[in-house]
Amino acid sequence: MLLAKIVGTVVATRKDPRLVSNKLLVVRAVDPRGKADGGYLVAVDTVDAGVGETVLVVSGSSARMASGLKDCPVDAAIVGIIDAVEVNE
Amino acid sequence: MHIARVIGTVVSTRKDENLVGLTLLMVQPLTPDRQPAGRPLVAVDAVGAGVGEHVFFVRGKEASFPFYPAEPPVDAGIVGIVDHWDLG
Fold first, then answer.
1. How many Cα atoms are found within 13 Å in the side-chain-facing hemisphere of A8?
2. Which residues of A touch chain B, with CB atoms under 8 Å apart?
């Protein structure tokens, strides 16, 4: 999974019916110290996260195992809000 | 699978209900000469690994298989602790 910071929101009116009522957010990968490190992604939010929070993003087919996303056409989902990362090196 | 070193821990209180009770660790993938290869990532621990240990992990949906029949939304999972490895 990726650590990422939420940097924005996405609004889409015309979309796959299985995406209706899902919240889409723009996230940017960050390193364990919170510094931006990598590209931007659109991810479905399943934990009521908000802009500025650091979150856990699951990618690929595993994203469909997040709560409420069964059989949805998604490949990135926010599945946790990060409280702390401790790196010993 | 990929070889990596566990470099830290991740704490999340608000998370998917199927992640409750699972341990999240930061892992740094390694090259064969034990140098960092690419960015660190978060992996779920299925074997009781700890910080500083060398491990191997799977990517993709298979990372959730150790927790069957639960299906936690994870795409990287530690499935073994490396005692030693040798490239001959």
1. 7
2. 1-3, 29, 31-32, 37-38, 46-48, 56, 58-67, 77, 79-89
The superfamily CATH assigns to domain A2-81 is: EutN/Ccml (2.40.50.220)
Q: What is the pTM (predicted TM-score) of this model?
A: 0.94
The number of helices, as runs of H, and strands, as runs of E, in chain A is: 0, 5
Q: Which domains does chain B have, with CATH numbers?
A: 2-81 (2.40.50.220)
Q: Report the distance separating Cα B69 and Cα A38, nearest Å.
A: 34
- Residue A35 CA to residue A31 CA, distance in Å, equals 5
Q: Which residues of A touch B15 (CB under 8 A)?
A: 47, 56, 79-81
B41 SS3 class: strand
- CA gap A89, B8 in Å, rounded: 8
Facing A84 at nearest CB: one of B11, B39, B43: B11
pLDDT digits (tens, 9 = 90+) for B3-55: 999 999 999 999 999 999 999 999 999 999 999 999 999 999 999 999 999 99
Length reported for chain B: 88
Where are the domains positioned within chain A? 2-81
